[in-house]
């Protein structure tokens, strides 16, 4: 049977949020955003290990969350790096032995669901690499630095990629090593695997799986949580 783990990255500074508290620790519905995220992985039966990557000064409070919220699958809490990609690489090194497929997830995407994770892990288990994504709804333009539009890619083939992104662990480790060797820094993990020439597949994501990035996302997050609790009958 395949063994699954997850690296949750939460070592960012939240510059675009502009709050003194890093956004992953802001509360939505009375609970830190990061805890909402971790609880979803905790509940999923096939996840065996959760590695949390956070700021060096925030390790203590994450240890406190594990205790307080019963996050028994958290096997390591470690300090991240200067870029998201570095934080992921550090997290991969802390996974326990025996994990074969790993999901990488942004700590600030608390509205993922078990179904979404399952879809992504299933496809990664079968193909080696899969990411959740949604078709873009707007028309996308490529714009030069002066503001002039250079081109308009065909919308039918454009997808907005989210996390989780899941991979065979050996493949993702190789992709990170290669990127480091070449000094390449990407904005997601799929890009690193694509650079190896390995196929990466999209599976159906969810428009509600937002990455909390700017202050208006906090209002949206409160509303999404309320809707979810109502539909769960809570
Ligand atoms: N050095 C970094 C940078 C980002 N992240 C994590 O990667 C996820 C997505 O990054 P982003 O939304 O860009 O978070 P920040 O880097 O915190 O935000 P900003 O770019 O506005 O500073 C977040 O969970 C963030 O904590 C990380 O673990 N380590
Ligand atoms: C990984 C990601 O969430 C996929 O959409 C995104 O690329 C992270 O970007 P950020 O600039 O680190 O927020």
TrEMBL record:
Pfam family membership, one: IspD
Annotated EC: 2.7.7.60
Gene Ontology process terms (BP): isopentenyl diphosphate biosynthetic process, methylerythritol 4-phosphate pathway
Single GO MF descriptor: 2-C-methyl-D-erythritol 4-phosphate cytidylyltransferase activity
Pathway participation: Isoprenoid biosynthesis; isopentenyl diphosphate biosynthesis via DXP pathway; isopentenyl diphosphate from 1-deoxy-D-xylulose 5-phosphate: step 2/6
Site location (Transition state stabilizer): 16, 23
Chain positions of site Positions MEP for the nucleophilic attack: 155, 211
Keyword Nucleotidyltransferase set for record: yes
Keywords: Isoprene biosynthesis, Nucleotidyltransferase, Transferase
Role according to the record: Catalyzes the formation of 4-diphosphocytidyl-2-C-methyl-D-erythritol from CTP and 2-C-methyl-D-erythritol 4-phosphate (MEP).
UniProt similarity note: Belongs to the IspD/TarI cytidylyltransferase family. IspD subfamily.
Stated name of the protein: 2-C-methyl-D-erythritol 4-phosphate cytidylyltransferase
Natural source organism: Paenibacillus flagellatus
Gene: ispD
């Amino acid at each position: 049977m395949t063994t699954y783990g997850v690296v949750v990255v939460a070592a960012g500074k939240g510059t675009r949020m502009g709050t003194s508290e890093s956004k992953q620790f802001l509360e939505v519905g009375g609970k830190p955003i990061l805890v909402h995220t971790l609880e979803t992985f905790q509940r999923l039966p096939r996840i065996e290990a959760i590695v949390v990557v956070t700021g060096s000064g925030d390790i203590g409070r994450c240890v406190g969350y594990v205790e307080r919220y019963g996050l028994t699958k958290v096997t390591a809490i470690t300090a991240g790096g200067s870029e998201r990609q570095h934080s992921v690489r550090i997290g991969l090194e802390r996974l326990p032995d025996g994990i074969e497929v790993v999901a990488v997830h942004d700590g600030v995407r608390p509205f993922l669901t078990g179904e979404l994770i399952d879809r992504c892990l299933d496809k990664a288990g079968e193909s080696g690499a899969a990411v959740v994504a949604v078709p873009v709804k707007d028309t996308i333009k490529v714009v030069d630095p002066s503001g002039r539009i250079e081109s308009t890619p065909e919308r039918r083939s454009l997808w907005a990629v989210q996390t989780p992104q899941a991979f065979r662990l050996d493949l993702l480790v190789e992709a990170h090593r290669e990127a480091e060797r070449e000094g390449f820094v990407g904005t997601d993990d799929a890009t690193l695997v694509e650079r190896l020439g390995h196929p990466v597949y999209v599976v159906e994501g969810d428009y509600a799986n937002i990455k909390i990035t700017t202050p208006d996302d906090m209002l949206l997050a409160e509303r999404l949580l309320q809707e979810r609790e109502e539909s769960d009958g809570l």
